[in-house]
Design a protein that fits this description.
- There is one protein chain.
- The relative contact order is 0.21.
- This protein has a five-stranded parallel sheet with strand order 2-3-1-4-5, with helices on both faces.
- The chain has ten helices and five strands; from the N terminus they run βαβααααβαβααβαα.
- With about 230 residues, the chain is α/β, with parallel strands linked by helices.
- Helix 1 crosses helix 9 and helix 3 (about 55-65) runs parallel beside helix 5 (about 95-110).
């Protein structure tokens, strides 16, 4: 290995497919995975449960300070209400400052048994892990992302109207790109992966090939990461 945790940073807007991609790559390459969006969702849920508004800095900052790993397993984190609140609290500089160390520590010292980590979010390659070995920026048109989210919600048995989902996606895109603290942006050295015309399998194949083709990393990857066979989907 190269003397430090091997880190893959994956960024992108909402419903771009970065989470699914990160999970599959982590399993394939035997890397620990941190969905950083869950961190902000967990804080958002605490804010909602406290009956506070998205701009209540005191409540949101306290929630960030008290966050523990177990909070990331709460099934309530998948609701649209929490997702919308998460986008808002993530724009608070105080909240982001509280959560930076949590994310960086995970990347530098991944759980036992892993030689590296994959983190996906909106500012991993630009703020959290600017020295990541590999950076990917996963995106797709707002219309395609809204259609995917709409289908996902219906598949979970939740009510969903495509037009409303699309409006929410565009609103979140605007908030994420224009927030004062660590706005969503493409790192200058990131590989742009547009999944508009790609399904999950095709996106995975492109990303994996890109990682394995990085100059100077092949020997490290083959010794310490070496792709594992994916489990059967049958």
């Amino acid at each position: 290995m190269i003397g430090r945790s091997f880190v893959v940073a994956i960024d992108g807007p909402a419903a771009s497919g970065k989470g699914t991609l990160a999970r599959r790559l982590a399993q394939k390459l035997n890397l620990a995975h941190l969905d950083t969006g869950k961190i902000y969702r967990a804080v958002a849920l605490k804010v909602i449960e406290a009956g506070a508004s998205a701009d209540d800095t005191v409540v949101a900052t306290k929630a960030a300070k008290q966050l523990i790993p177990k909070d990331l397993d709460n099934p309530a984190l998948v609701t649209d209400a929490v997702a919308s609140m998460a986008s808002k609290v993530a724009a608070l500089p105080e909240v982001r400052r509280q959560l930076i160390d949590f994310q960086r520590n995970f990347s530098k010292t991944p759980p036992k048994g892993y030689c590296g980590a994959i983190l996906d979010g909106r500012d991993i390659g630009t703020v959290i892990c600017p020295e990541a070995h590999v950076k990917l920026y996963v995106t797709a048109t707002a219309e395609v992302r809204a259609a995917r989210r709409h289908k996902e919600l219906l598949g979970r048995g939740l009510p969903s109207i495509y037009a409303q989902v699309l409006e929410d996606i565009k609103a979140r895109d605007h908030r994420d790109a224009h927030r004062a603290a660590a706005p969503l942006a493409v790192a200058s050295d990131a590989f742009l992966l547009d999944t508009t015309e790609l399904d999950a399998d095709a996106a995975f194949a492109v990303a994996l090939a890109y990682i394995m083709a990085q100059p100077g990393l092949s020997s490290d990857l083959s010794e310490d990461i070496s792709p594992k066979a994916e489990p059967s989907r049958d």
